[in-house]
Amino acid sequence: MLKTPQEYLDTLQGPGRDWLEEFLDYMKKEHENITPVMFRQRPMFKVGKSYILFSVAKEHFTIHTLNFELLEDLKNRLPKNSYGKGCIKVKFFQKDAKPILKDFCSNVIKINLLSTGLNLF
Fold this sequence. Notes:
The protein has about 120 residues and is α+β, with helices and mostly antiparallel strands. It is built from 4 helices and 6 strands, in the order ααββββαββα. It has helices at about 5-10, 15-30, 70-75, 100-115; strands at about 35-40, 40-45, 50-55, 60-65, 80-85, 85-90.
């Protein structure tokens, strides 16, 4: 059983590992007050009543959240991706989506911190 984000990262190879490492580094740098935990053996950043969870599949990187409104907005910004209930799946070749996805992650954090009455920005 994987107990840390690094252990999960160590199980990956290729572009999936690169994507996850980049997003974990981004979250650590930009949101240092939020420590990731493991949920279903995937790294998750819990904020208030929501979260951001990262996972990697064979051909895509997935971001999961309960912020459905922000996901709807993301559909307009990144229409060529797959969406499930509470997630976006981005093919590894779509590197130009990374800045938009990082902004999305920060917005999820910001909205949920504000809803808890905390302001860590």
